[in-house]
Amino acid sequence: MTKARKNFLVEGKVQGVGYRRWAASKALSLGLSGWVRNLPSGAVEVQAQGDPEALEELEALLGEGPASARVARVTSVEKPPEGDEEPFRIRHF
User: Fold this and answer.
1) Residue 89 catalytic?
2) Average of per-residue pLDDT values in the chain
3) β-strands 70-79, 33-38: how paired?
4) Structure pTM?
């Protein structure tokens, strides 16, 4: 299987609304590895690795977010794939 990796920056009302937990559950259901974390700016950062089609699907889902979120923008940057990773997780500072 070809692996790809992307870093996503999600901006809007995405903190304090369960966004990280929601994003982690979506990534896990798509078979992706990686992590999600809040940023001091109020944005959420997601880094995910796996099947390129699953990454595209995750990007579309990140733009929707959970019902309590209001996503203003999702930007993505391709990254080089890394070695084996643990299952998708929430990172805390």
Assistant:
1) no
2) 95
3) unpaired
4) 0.94
